[in-house]
UniProtKB/TrEMBL annotation:
Pfam families assigned: Lactamase_B
Reaction catalyzed: 3',5'-cyclic CMP + H2O = CMP + H(+); 3',5'-cyclic UMP + H2O = UMP + H(+)
Function per UniProt: Counteracts the endogenous Pycsar antiviral defense system. Phosphodiesterase that enables metal-dependent hydrolysis of host cyclic nucleotide Pycsar defense signals such as cCMP and cUMP.
InterPro entries given in the database record: Metallo-B-lactamas (IPR001279), RibonucZ/Hydroxyglut_hydro (IPR036866), Sec-metab_biosynth-thioest (IPR050662)
PANTHER family on file: ENDORIBONUCLEASE LACTB2 (PTHR23131), METALLO-BETA-LACTAMASE SUPERFAMILY POTEIN (PTHR23131:SF4)
Stated name of the protein: Glyoxylase-like metal-dependent hydrolase (Beta-lactamase superfamily II)
Signal peptide region: none
Domain named Metallo-beta-lactamase: residues: 23-230
Length: 317
């Protein structure tokens, strides 16, 4: 067995791949025809070198499964497929999302410096359309196979159930193995932090409401071991789900508290809650997450909006 792989269950191993200041988990499922890889890590030389060293050490890979389209999970999928000839399988939701982002990118990239209108509307950090849509539509591939909600899919030699769990991403999937009580949670939940639940384009609907429904769904499975996309394993699914819900509700109470003083934009509320001296990436993620909470509060009847001078203001009802 390759030393970098950490055994987590009888047929499941974890490979922690570099991602920014931390890691992203790739899971490998042992089978007679080789390993099934779940998620590839980002598309960079360091991650690619990690995989090449494993392959040169004798690791046999049968296929690659993608849980969702975020670049730290799907990033190297085209390389596996096109350079190594390994089949890549993703959900029909991911295929539809790739097509959607590709269309948007082609429509919006006529002016390299045009600001992303969505961010301006909600008073968010400055971002160009080119920056946003290139990121969102940066991965394009034709999968060798697709799976759908509740499909049975072989990971190694074991059959798992695919569970559509939107919220963190519209195409996000978890995987359930009933015989062992094993849940592959991907970015549905982490052991120590809460996944980002972003609202970053109008078509996203109400992602936090979707996320809460997804939490309800995975809580209905009697998981004994939960494997997240980042951080270490989770043993108490119910408690972790409650903690994450409580965290979102705490932040929403903060938002309502600040709105007591009058209408505020999403950008202003982010500064109220998180301060103004933040790294750009953190600022963007906090903005899109705060916006998701505001949309949720609006749908639940706690706030309403008013648009003035091209900007949306939120106020308590």
């Amino acid at each position: 067995m390759v030393k970098r792989l950490v055994r987590l269950a009888e047929h499941v191993f974890r490979l922690a791949l570099p991602y920014g200041d931390g890691t992203v988990n790739s899971y490998l499922f042992e089978g007679q025809r080789g390993y099934t890889v779940m998620d590839t890590g980002v598309h960079d030389e360091l991650t690619q070198r990690e995989w090449l060293q494993l392959l040169e050490g004798g690791l046999q890979i049968e296929k690659v499964i993608i849980t969702h389209m975020h670049p730290d999970h799907i990033g190297l999928a085209p390389w596996f497929q096109q350079e190594l000839g390994i089949p890549v399988i993703c959900s029909q939701h991911t295929v539809d999302l790739m097509k959607r982002y590709e269309v948007y990118a082609k429509q919006e990239l006529s002016d390299a410096h045009a600001p992303y209108a969505f961010n301006r509307k909600y008073d968010g950090p400055e971002l160009s359309e080119r920056q946003f849509y290139r990121f969102m539509g940066s991965i394009q591939l034709e999968p060798d196979e697709v799976y759908r909600n509740h499909d049975r899919i072989m990971l190694g030699d074991e059959e798992y159930e695919a569970l559509w769990t939107p919220g963190h991403a519209p195409d996000h999937y978890c995987f359930w193995h009933q015989p062992s009580g094993l849940l592959i949670a991907a970015d549905m939940m982490f052991a120590d932090t809460a996944p980002v639940v972003p609202f970053w384009m109008e078509e996203d609907g109400n992602p936090l409401s979707d996320y809460f429904r997804s939490l309800d769904l995975i809580e209905s499975y009697p998981a004994e071991l939960v494997l997240p996309g980042h951080d270490h394993v989770i043993h108490d699914l119910g408690q972790r789900a409650r903690d994450i819900r409580n965290g979102h509700h705490f932040r929403m109470q903060q938002i309502l508290g600040h709105l007591v003083h009058g209408p505020r934009t999403a950008g202003e509320l982010c500064i109220d809650i998180y301060g103004s001296d933040r790294p750009v990436t953190q600022e963007l993620l906090e903005f899109y997450t705060s916006l998701a909470r505001l949309i949720y509060l609006q749908e639940e009847g706690f706030v309403e909006t008013d648009e003035r001078d091209g900007k949306v203001y939120f106020q308590r009802k």
